[in-house]
Structures are given as structure tokens and as C-alpha cells.
Amino acid sequence: MCWLSLTRTNPPMSLLLTMGLLDACWVFSISDVWLQNTYYILHREGMMAARAMPAFP
Per the UniProt record, which residue ranges are transmembrane (predicted)? Predict the structure, then answer.
């Protein structure tokens, strides 16, 4: 409801809010992908290191 009243009274403000939300979503998706890639790389490196190590006693 608050969103609608803002949109009706102040178009530039609602546009700004929408852009802000989109920007936040974009940043979150980018960081999410980055985290997944980092995790994957660390996991892969860890597996390689584990394979290279001699067997644990």
C-alpha cells in the first residue's frame, strides 16, 4: 500500500526506489555467483590437495 501511494504522489521517487531495488538484486545475484564459484574452486583445490597427500595413517 505504501508503495502505491509513493508511486501516485511522487513518480521520480518511485522510479528511484525501483532502480535501487533492481540494483540490490543485481549485486546480490553477482555476489551469489561469485560465492558459488569461489566455493567450487576451493572445493576442487581441496580435493586435488587431498589426492596429492599420502594416505592418512
Answer: 13-35
Q: What residues have CB less than 8 Å from 14, skipping those under 6 apart?
A: 3, 6, 7
The pTM assigned to this predicted structure is 0.39
Distances (CA, A) of 27 to 18, 24, 31, 39: 14, 5, 6, 18
55 pLDDT band (50/70/90 cuts)? low
What is the Cα–Cα distance from 17 to 5, expressed in whole angstroms? 13
* pLDDT band, very low/low/confident/very high, at 11 (cuts 50, 70, 90): low
